[in-house]
Amino acid sequence: MFKVDMIVSLKSILKEQGFKKIRNYWYKVQNEMTFYLNIQGSAYSSDDFYVNFGVVLSSFKEKIPPI
Question: At a CB cut-off of 8 Å and minimum separation 6, what does 13 contact?
């Protein structure tokens, strides 16, 4: 699966779960925590990408959390 296909596939699934999107980041604030998912392209191959998951122990403050 290509990066663009992954983004399109995740969009509706994550939206149903209450996630919002900024560029290639999806995030959801719940109980003073921010859950996020990021699609990152590979530096080694244009066909490869990484899916990063994270939890930040604070609410989203209009800034994308660091990976």
Answer: none
